[in-house]
């Protein structure tokens, strides 16, 4: 669908059961957004490549740990890899979200654990009170806030705190990543997976120096757009949408609508 539409503004999202699909079904969503999602401009580190030309990268300095799939000799190569990965996560009982962008040429995969933490009582009451279910769009940077208070107090720090609860721990992420690579290798018709042996892995879009500078802080600098009076004319509206935008210099901006 993303390829057929041929429009980079169209994004497709998927939520698995346990990652805020409403019921046990193929929970796809799609809409057009004429601005980049923060996730689409996040720094990545190339960690794996297939002999088919497919590149798998890891998100760097983003609150939710995830993998990025792109390239490949054909679209089918990309489709097979992400399909094998999702089946693996489903079989391993790992909830996940998927974002398909760039007309189907780039796919983000986020294994997550927010609902599990909720069930175990490990999410703070403050975050639970927001009633925000962090699914694919929220993880990608488009927040739908349920309370006027949260909308008016929206900040990068608050968004970061919520999304950090979604992410697997580093240790668990490495375990899940190994399962994904094994699944892809098994379904790759013997072509196999080649782990990058570079001493300095490819980092995009920022240089290693910029990445290290960012990692010393809790998160990127933030600039707020002044909300327009026409954006939210009715303060009693039940839902208020907020988009975290990544600027050209890497900073995150907040746009209320």
TrEMBL record:
- Example GO BP: glucose metabolic process
Q: Does the keyword Secreted apply?
A: no
Tell me the ranges covered by the GDPGP1-like N-terminal domain, including all copies: 1-31
Q: Which InterPro entries match?
A: GDPGP (IPR026506), GDPGP1_C (IPR058865), GDPGP1_N (IPR058866)
**Can you give the residue ranges of the GDPGP1-like C-terminal domain?**
38-185
UniProt subcellular location: Cytoplasm
Q: Which UniProt keywords apply?
A: Cytoplasm, Guanine-nucleotide releasing factor, Hydrolase, Nucleotide-binding, Nucleotidyltransferase, Transferase
Q: What GO cellular component term, any one, is given?
A: cytoplasm
> Per its record, how is this protein called by name?
GDP-L-galactose phosphorylase 1
């Amino acid at each position: 669908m993303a390829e057929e539409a041929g429009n980079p503004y169209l994004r497709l999202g998927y939520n698995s059961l346990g990652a805020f699909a409403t019921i046990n079904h193929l929970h796809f969503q799609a809409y057009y957004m004429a601005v980049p999602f923060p996730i689409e401009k996040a720094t990545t580190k190339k960690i794996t490549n297939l002999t088919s030309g497919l590149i798998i990268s890891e998100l760097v300095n983003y609150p939710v740990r995830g993998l990025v799939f792109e390239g490949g000799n054909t679209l089918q190569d990309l489709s097979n890899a992400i399909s094998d990965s999702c089946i693996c996560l489903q079989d391993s009982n790992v909830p996940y979200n998927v974002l398909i962008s760039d007309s189907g040429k780039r796919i983000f995969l986020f294994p997550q654990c927010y609902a599990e933490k909720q069930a175990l009582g490990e999410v703070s009451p403050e975050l639970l009170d927001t009633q925000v279910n962090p699914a694919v769009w929220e993880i990608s940077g488009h927040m739908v806030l349920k309370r006027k208070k949260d909308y008016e107090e929206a900040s990068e720090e608050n968004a970061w705190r919520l999304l950090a609860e979604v992410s697997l721990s580093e240790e668990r992420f490495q375990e899940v990543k190994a399962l994904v690579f094994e699944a892809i290798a098994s379904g790759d018709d013997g072509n196999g997976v080649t782990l990058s042996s570079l001493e300095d892995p490819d980092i995009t879009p920022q240089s290693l120096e910029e990445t290290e500078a960012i990692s010393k802080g809790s998160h990127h600098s933030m600039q707020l757009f002044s909300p327009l009076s026409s954006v939210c004319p009715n303060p009693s509206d039940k839902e208020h949408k907020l988009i975290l935008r990544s600027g050209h210099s890497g900073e995150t901006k907040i746009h209320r609508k």
